[in-house]
Recover the amino acids of this structure.
């Protein structure tokens, strides 16, 4: 029964993706993309990946959709003027069909090979560590070096966007009072939820990235309502906060090294506190970067450094 | 991968194919950005579906990989959109939008 | 046992409201009437589904969280409908 429902969900996902890539109106494509992201979040839940579901709903659907729609608004052309799009067919269709068939065959073979194989022993977080959320343990303990570089990737994206120079400033239209009312109520709740996600990311579903996504969403809402966003508006504060994520991460790693260990090998006693420090800095930095990226693609102020 | 996760893995393969095809065929750059995102989502689906080795808790390493992947995809999309925006405002109307 | 029955009735009723909202989306003639159908029916449906899930969960904390989710969705969808209706009016 569950398999039938899952198959229906998977088919729905593919149909939605086909529709969003095919529809002529780019605005519709953007909205369909947000719906697609939310459906993918449901799929993550079906695959027992709640942390990924949170991140997908907030970042993959929410922030990416907002970026795309803001770009449509910022490019100035009316999104409904759909230009002539190329029709399918020809060599790309054959190449893609072959690739997809090969992938499918490989996946089915994978299922056949692993049915009945022994399960995976759970990684060490069960051994008395404070990080009982396995995904957080992997992100910030076992593979912390990769996460350090990931924070740098976001920062480099902001640098790249800043290097493009300023977008032409357009006067924002007065925001609807309904939206301002919603934002005044919703943003404090979102900040609270973000803090809670950050705190409980160590032991339960949550973590730095999900918290950053909710904070970024709050920042984008503030922008849409025409209200000030102090951490992003400050011309000196913004780059410092944006770099703070990578800097604190690296700083903690080097401090641990100075205290007589390897890079980012936390001592067991201080692990919880160190991970929380890193996560807080990373969450704030990523949120600031995402809101600054949102600014850069839309009509409005120029992203000055 | 368990049988229960197979529909999603196959959907991931289909999404990757759809995204790649749209990336190759569609001339409008905004559409290409959407196509890359769809293809990326397909890859994530395959990764997370493959995290189910057998009945029991799934392997958390692919989950962490996909989490990182989502964040990197957002930043790459933002950079691409900013480039498109800048091209637009620079008055380049030659190669689509 | 009665709680289980109540929960299932609530879930079924909620699904019914969602279906009604979808029918309204597909069959109503213009944007404003569609917004009306969607907002009212879907919010009521969500409330009933949340009630059913809260009854099934058997935990006050989960019930409080579900109530908070419902209130936030009410806020968001109400604002969205107002914004969309204002955009259509122009």
């Amino acid at each position: 029964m569950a398999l039938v429902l899952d198959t229906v969900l998977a088919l729905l996902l593919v149909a939605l993706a086909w529709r969003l890539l095919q529809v002529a109106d780019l605005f519709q494509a953007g909205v369909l993309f947000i719906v697609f992201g939310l459906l993918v979040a449901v799929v993550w839940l079906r695959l027992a990946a709640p942390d990924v579901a949170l991140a997908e709903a907030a970042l993959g659907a929410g922030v990416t959709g907002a970026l795309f729609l803001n770009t449509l608004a910022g490019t100035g052309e009316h999104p409904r003027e759909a230009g002539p799009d190329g029709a399918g067919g020809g060599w790309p269709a054959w190449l893609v069909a072959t690739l997809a068939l090969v992938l499918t065959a490989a996946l089915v073979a994978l299922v056949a090979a692993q049915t009945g194989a022994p399960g995976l022993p759970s990684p060490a977080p069960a051994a008395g560590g404070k990080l009982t959320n396995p995904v957080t343990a992997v992100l910030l303990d076992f593979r912390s070096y990769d996460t350090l570089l990931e924070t740098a990737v976001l920062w480099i994206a902001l640098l790249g966007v800043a290097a493009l120079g300023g977008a032409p400033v357009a006067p924002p239209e007065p925001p609807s009072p309904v939206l301002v009312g919603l934002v005044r109520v919703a943003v404090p709740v979102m900040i609270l939820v973000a803090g809670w996600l950050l705190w409980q990311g160590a032991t339960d579903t949550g973590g730095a990235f999900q918290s950053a996504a909710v904070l970024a969403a709050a920042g984008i809402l503030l922008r849409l309502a025409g209200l000030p966003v102090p951490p992003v508006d400050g011309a000196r504060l913004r780059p410092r906060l944006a770099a703070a994520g990578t800097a604190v991460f690296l700083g903690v790693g080097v401090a641990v090294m100075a205290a007589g260990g390897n890079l980012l090998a936390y001592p067991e006693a201080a692990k919880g506190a160190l991970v929380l420090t890193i996560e807080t800095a990373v969450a704030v930095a990523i949120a600031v970067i995402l809101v600054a990226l949102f600014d850069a693609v839309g009509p409005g102020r120029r992203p000055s450094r | 991968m368990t049988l229960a996760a197979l529909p999603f893995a196959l959907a991931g393969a289909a999404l990757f194919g759809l995204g790649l095809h749209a990336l190759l065929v569609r001339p409008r750059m905004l559409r290409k950005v959407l196509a890359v995102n769809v293809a990326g989502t397909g890859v994530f689906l395959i990764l997370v579906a493959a995290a189910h080795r057998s009945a029991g808790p799934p392997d958390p390493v692919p989950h962490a990989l996909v989490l990182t992947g989502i964040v990197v995809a957002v930043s790459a999309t933002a950079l691409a959109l900013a480039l498109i925006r800048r091209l637009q405002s620079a008055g380049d109307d030659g190669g689509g939008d | 046992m009665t709680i289980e029955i109540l929960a299932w009735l609530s879930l079924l009723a909620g699904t019914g409201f969602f279906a009604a909202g979808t029918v309204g989306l597909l069959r109503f003639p213009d944007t404003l009437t569609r917004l009306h159908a969607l907002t009212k029916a879907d919010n009521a449906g969500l409330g009933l589904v949340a009630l059913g899930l809260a009854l099934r969960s058997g935990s006050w904390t989960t019930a409080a969280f579900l109530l908070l989710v419902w209130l936030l969705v009410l806020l968001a969808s109400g604002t969205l409908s107002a914004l969309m209706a204002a955009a259509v009016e122009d």
